[in-house]
UniProtKB/TrEMBL annotation:
<dbReference type="InterPro" id="IPR007016">
    <property type="entry name" value="O-antigen_ligase-rel_domated"/>
</dbReference>
<feature type="transmembrane region" description="Helical">
    <location>
        <begin position="305"/>
        <end position="325"/>
    </location>
</feature>
<protein>
    <submittedName>
        <fullName>O-Antigen ligase</fullName>
    </submittedName>
</protein>
<feature type="transmembrane region" description="Helical">
    <location>
        <begin position="195"/>
        <end position="215"/>
    </location>
</feature>
<feature type="transmembrane region" description="Helical">
    <location>
        <begin position="83"/>
        <end position="103"/>
    </location>
</feature>
<feature type="transmembrane region" description="Helical">
    <location>
        <begin position="57"/>
        <end position="76"/>
    </location>
</feature>
<keyword id="KW-1133">Transmembrane helix</keyword>
<feature type="transmembrane region" description="Helical">
    <location>
        <begin position="389"/>
        <end position="413"/>
    </location>
</feature>
<dbReference type="GO" id="GO:0016020">
    <property type="term" value="C:membrane"/>
</dbReference>
<feature type="transmembrane region" description="Helical">
    <location>
        <begin position="441"/>
        <end position="464"/>
    </location>
</feature>
<feature type="transmembrane region" description="Helical">
    <location>
        <begin position="158"/>
        <end position="175"/>
    </location>
</feature>
<feature type="transmembrane region" description="Helical">
    <location>
        <begin position="236"/>
        <end position="254"/>
    </location>
</feature>
<dbReference type="GO" id="GO:0016874">
    <property type="term" value="F:ligase activity"/>
</dbReference>
<feature type="domain" description="O-antigen ligase-related">
    <location>
        <begin position="245"/>
        <end position="405"/>
    </location>
</feature>
<feature type="transmembrane region" description="Helical">
    <location>
        <begin position="260"/>
        <end position="278"/>
    </location>
</feature>
<keyword id="KW-0472">Membrane</keyword>
<keyword id="KW-0436">Ligase</keyword>
Length: 541
């Protein structure tokens, strides 16, 4: 147990170092993923863990309490920004789901357990709000540098799942009896007692897609821009981190044998390699200089080349290993098993036609699917709806279901709009920054799609606490906050009245009036410093 705790904490520290941040808020965020691991070989299990004899429950509660308390302290210190974000319309779906679920608690099998789980959901959301204020505070401290780039934010969040992968690989060596599970049909999968295989698949997919995006962005910088974007040492570090993350994620993704994760990984790759959309409207085209149009076309052609290469590699792998891939994907089952969602469709049918009509407005109570007999199906009680959206409909009624849809769809739409509507700059440095920002938003859109799809077969953003829930709420507030666009607005059009008024309207991260006036008077020097900053290339050929 002690060895497992040490491995997990060291893995979190290593991932934080690889992410390139010393933020206390992000350190607590990384620790928040560790309670999802089962580190005690004498207990293990996904649900049936009783008592504190083995120390596993104490470990989970202790780490979660430390992380939650630390986030609460940071939230109190930044309470002005936190309350400003909570007052924004984007927070309404989450707060609405919490409030409506509280109303239905008397109907739950065990209201106190349900209330505790709801508190965890709210704590995850507040964690995301505090992380958004961290990005905003950095933006205010370094206005001349354009704040934190979207790519840096996505890197920090994606690598937060790396401790899960590192710990899984370490336990496959130290305690393979809880890291792997062999079914009656002889299929051996990573996950078992350590962590659910599908959750491991989700975690590895997120890290895998980030690594692919990071390597492709570095490749585009070398071919489409001046390779002297930053120091040779920094470029080597970026590539090394991405390659290590790619190797770890690929290993866990393969051994988890999660069908949902493999499908979403391929879908995410398809999204990443879509060509950047060139501006099509007459207004956009009229404001672009010939140099800007040429650079955007060159970057788009680079993406097409990368898409062709990736497609050829995928086809080559399928052509040479079709039998192995089929065996890996089928896992000893049949096509009928896949068509039924491994038995899930029967459960969904009963929940939708039997349970939902009983309480269509308030629901049956949050987490009423319990081993105590919340819902009977196929001869025994179920504690998992295996579908986020259906779970919300059954447990919180139609209002809660609409809140969950909004929680998933809102950031998905925002990421889509920013991924496929690039904002070109007026200088080479700004055009390059715009391209990198668009790459980050494309990755964000792919990750949001993964969260939406994984919710079809798992808990997702509602239900029992899980990795996907914490990851989604960790990004939710930032994606929908002014801080997510502050980087681009600072670098592009910093001297225009429109940009200044937009920054002033960003309530959580707006500077005081006197500071804003000073910044307006020094717009040209600020733009010069932005081009000379460490994140901005000094020259782009």
């Amino acid at each position: 147990m002690i060895l497992g705790m040490a491995v997990a904490v060291l893995a979190a520290g290593l991932a934080l170092f690889m992410a390139g941040t010393r933020s206390v808020a992000y350190a607590l965020f990384y620790l928040s993923f560790l309670p999802f691991l089962t580190l005690d070989p004498s207990q293990g299990g996904l649900v049936s863990i009783d008592g504190l004899e083995g120390g596993n429950v104490a470990w989970k509660l202790g780490v979660r309490a430390i992380a939650t308390l630390g986030i609460a302290v940071l939230g109190y210190r930044r309470r002005g920004e936190v309350f400003a974000l909570l007052a924004r319309p984007a927070s309404l779906p989450v707060l609405g789901l919490f409030a409506w679920a509280v109303i239905g608690l008397p109907r739950a099998q065990d209201p106190w357990v349900s209330f505790f789980r709801l508190g965890e959901l709210l704590a995850f959301f507040v964690t995301g709000v505090v992380l958004a204020t961290e990005v905003g505070a950095r933006h205010d401290r370094e206005p001349g540098r354009g704040g934190i780039a979207p790519g840096d934010v996505v890197r920090r969040h994606a690598l937060a799942l790396l401790p899960v992968l590192i710990s899984a690989i370490a336990f496959s060596v130290l305690h393979p009896e809880i890291a792997f599970h062999e079914s009656t049909s002889g299929v051996r999968r990573m996950g078992h007692k350590f962590m659910n295989s599908n959750v491991l698949g989700f975690s590895s997919t997120v890290v895998f897609l980030w690594a692919v995006s990071a390597l492709r962005a570095r490749w585009a910088l070398h071919l489409g821009a001046d390779p002297a974007t930053n120091s040779r040492r920094e470029r080597l570090r970026e590539v090394t981190v991405a390659l290590v993350a790619l190797g770890l994620a690929s290993y866990v993704l393969y051994h988890s044998r999660s069908r949902t994760a493999s499908i979403t990984a391929l879908g995410g790759l398809a999204i990443l390699f879509l060509p950047w959309r060139a501006p099509r409207s007459s207004g956009e085209t009229a404001t672009m200089s010939p140099g800007v149009s040429a650079d955007m076309a060159r970057l788009a052609s680079l993406r097409r080349i990368g898409a062709v290469i990736a497609a050829c590699l995928v086809l080559a792998v399928f052509a040479t290993s079709i039998g192995t891939i089929e065996e890996w994907f089928m896992r000893g089952g049949t096509s009928a098993d896949i068509a039924s969602g491994t038995g899930r469709t029967g459960l969904w049918h009963d929940l939708l036609l039997v349970q939902v009509p009983k309480a269509p407005l308030v629901g049956a109570g949050y987490l009423n699917l319990s081993s105590a007999g919340g819902f009977e199906h196929a001869g025994h009680a179920w504690n998992n709806a295996h579908n986020t959206y259906l779970f919300a409909l059954v447990s919180t009624g139609l209002p809660g279901f609409l809140c969950v849809l909004s929680i998933v769809a809102w950031p998905l739409l925002v990421a889509f709009q920013r991924a496929f509507r690039p904002l070109p700059g007026s200088s080479p440095a700004e055009r390059l920054r715009s391209a990198l920002d668009q790459e980050a938003w494309t990755l964000l859109f792919a990750l949001q799609v993964i969260v939406a799809i994984s919710g079809i077969t798992g808990f997702g953003v509602a239900g029992y606490p899980n990795v996907a829930m914490l990851f989604h709420y960790g990004l939710f507030a930032w994606v929908l906050s002014p801080a997510s666009t502050a980087h681009a607005s600072e670098a592009i059009g910093a001297s225009t009245d429109a940009t200044c008024s937009a920054r002033q309207s960003a309530v959580p991260f707006a500077a005081p009036p006197a500071a804003t006036a000073t910044r307006l008077r020094s717009a040209v020097p600020r733009l010069t410093r932005a081009v000379r900053g460490p994140q901005i290339p000094r020259s782009v050929r």
